Amino acid sequence: MGLINMITNYLNAVVGRNQEFEELIAAKDITRVKELFSTREALVAEAMREYDPMQHEVMRRPDKIIKNAKGERRGVVKRWRLPINYPQYINEIAVVFIYGRPIKWTNQSEGTDNAYRAFQDLVKRTRFDSKIRQCKRLAGAETQSAMLFRVFRNNENQPDCQIRVLAASKGDEIYARWDMYENLVSFAWGYHVKDSSTETSYHFDIFTPDVIYRCKRTITGWEVETEDNPIGKIPVILFQQDKEWKGVEPLIEREEYIGSKTADINDYFADPQFVVNADIIKNLPEKGDENKTLIVKGQDDATKAAHYLTWDSAPESKQKEIEWLQKHILTKTFTPNIDFESMKGLSNVSGKALKQMMLLADIKASRHKETHDELLDRTGNLMISIIGNVMNIALKGECDKLVIGHEYQEPFGEDIKEAIENIAKATDAGMLSTEGAIELNPLVKDKTQEMNRITKEATEAAQRQRDIFGATQTRDDVFGGAE
């Protein structure tokens, strides 16, 4: 059947038959199915090359070959190749300013506390906070990454879930199909599996909201296994963006070239060179001779006949160019210059002031949030579907009503003192309820639990007051009766 399918698919391709997506999969023509997906292979390869310092253009500088007067090769002088790791620095700053601290999830619906607790447990169980940082880092470095949610039964035969991060640097191929409104219609993941010590097979998994196709390439064609998708959604969050250092590649290359060439010049001029008259060479005293005497012919001053040639300093224009390059590389990528000199003395600076100092990175993070808000909304909905349809079907009713919100947290923390003071003032002025104050309080981890504690404490305090005043009233009645 595999050979027949191959021949049939070949004939369909020759005559140019326009087969639909499902029809091609049914025909096991996965090679043509792959052509229906879009991929960022070229962009990813370019970004990965630039992200690795050892693959920068400056590393291709050839060594200098030294020849004698006859044109014969006399030796080789090493030329310095000094790549500067700007892409990784720029990318790490971008990651810290959007996901440096975990996403704060909120329950925006009522009567869904059990489902929300299950959601929080799933976030923790799948190590979501670390996975999303990995995805953002890889997307910034390679322009693309993905979070694949896998549901399965664990060793205790209980439904479970885990997240795998996909990226080209990890050996994954990422494919996507979009409709005209930029909605993800289907997703595909290509990867290799080592079947034995000598054999490796290629797999191509296709995910749709209803069906998952497990495809494996063999000698006779493709094997395709079909399974239902119990989640009811494509179990993937796809991250796509421009490389974080886009637009400053020539500036980085120029600074690397200047730095490498300056290192070569330093090797040549940094050590003083001895300039000597030809007459002196014949009369140089031996090393270790006592009472050394230098006989000079035709010179009034020995310092004129022999002296050291030194290089005072690098040209000022070169230094200014390097400073100009460094400034524009960072500013044009919205990256603050974080080093020891700029950071020392900031221990007592408030979070608000620190945010103003890091304004460039904050602007860039805000720009990323335009797309990451959608990704987080989709993540919340996907995890709710996993809980209601797979992990805990008994909670499906609550999951259908559960509405999850998210908030980004400041990378260096918030000014808690100022926030609490503002909350207290708003509460005292009657502009904020107690429940609202609890929800906004940065010190509160669980709003529902804290509200229950406050209610319990208020009830106990009221009871103590009633007990005290009740005892006082009884005593007054006793004394009154005695009179």
Structure characteristics:
single chain; alpha+beta; three-stranded antiparallel sheet; five-stranded antiparallel sheet; about 475 residues; 18 helices
Mean pLDDT level: 83
Helix content: 40-55%
Task: Note the total helix count.
Answer: 18
Number of strands: 14
Instruction: List the uncertain runs.
Output: 11-18
Largest sheet: 5 strands, antiparallel
Secondary-structure class: alpha+beta
Large-scale geometry: flat
Estimated share of beta-strand residues: 15-25%
Distance between termini?
112 Å
Any idea what the radius of gyration is?
A: 35 Å
Question: Order of strands in the sheet with the most strands?
Answer: 6-7-8-9-10
What does this structure look like?
The protein starts with a helix and ends with a helix. It has helices at 2-14, 21-26, 30-35, 41-51, 86-99, 113-125, 128-142, 249-269, 278-281, 302-305, 316-331, 340-343, 351-357, 359-391, 396-401, 416-428, 434-440, 447-482; strands at 64-67, 73-77, 104-107, 144-153, 159-166, 173-178, 184-194, 200-207, 211-218, 221-228, 236-240, 273-276, 306-309, 404-407. The chain has a domain at 1-33. Strands 6-7-8-9-10 form a five-stranded antiparallel sheet. Strands 5-4-11 form a three-stranded antiparallel sheet. Mean pLDDT is 83; it is low at 11-18. A hairpin with a 5-residue loop joins β6 (173-178) and β7. It is α+β, with helices and mostly antiparallel strands.
